Amino acid sequence: MASIHAAPPITIAIGSTNPVKIEAVRWAVEQAWPGARLLPLEVDSGVSEMPRSDEEGKRGALQRARAARQQADADYGMGLEGAVAEDDGWMYVVNWAAVVHRDGRHALGCGGRLLLPDPIAQEIRRGGELGPIMDRYTGHEHTKRAGGAAGYLTRGLVPRAMSFQVAVAMALAPFLRPELYRKGE
Fold it and tell me: Please, which pLDDT band fits residue 8 given cuts at 50, 70 and 90?
């Protein structure tokens, strides 16, 4: 008699131990792949503490995803990176997510762009980092591990986790509809 074995759960290494980022991945993954196992890991992003462009944010997210996937030998690696980016003299907060599969396929997603108030943008241009700046504005420590700049500036309408949830969901699209994303067919 042949034994029937259930497929092992998908393993997903998350390149962060930040609870906001873990919750964003958990939200998307529970809907996409119920039963998947999440492995949060502290990995190096390979970019500055405060990425200052879309390109640097994307690189950081990809580096985190690749490093976490490899370190855990997981099926997927997910990396999330917050950044600021300038466009036509305006500065925005942008949250990037990257998904990397064991076979080398990868995808990126963005959680939208939030315009920063000029006083905050000016501090960042002078070398400040968004996290400590927002801590000062909110009167709380570790804002980036909670509602973040988005949560504070939108009065809770779009907390940081929600922006990262959108980024993760967007990055997952090629893995959820692979038949539509195949190259060369």
Answer: confident
Question: What is the three-class DSSP state of 85?
Answer: strand
Query: How far out from the chain centre does Cα 162 lie?
Result: 11
* The amino acid at 109: G
Task: Please write the tens of the pLDDT for every residue from 144-160.
Answer: 888 889 999 999 999 98
- The rounded mean pLDDT for the chain is 93
Please, is 59 exposed, middle or buried when counting C-beta atoms within 10 Å of its C-beta (0-12, 13-18, 19+)? buried
Helices and strands, counts by H and E, the chain: 7, 5
- Looking at the predicted structure, is the pLDDT value of residue 3 above 90? no
φ and ψ at residue 179, rounded to 5 degrees = -65, -25
Bridge partners, 12 (sequence order): 38, 76
Residue given tokens 């960042």 in the structure block: 124
- Count Cα neighbours of 74 within 13 Å in the Cβ-side half-sphere: 26
The whole-angstrom separation of Cα 129 and Cα 42 is 20
Contact 79, 62 (CB under 8 A): yes
Q: Against a cut of 0.85, is the pTM above it? A: yes
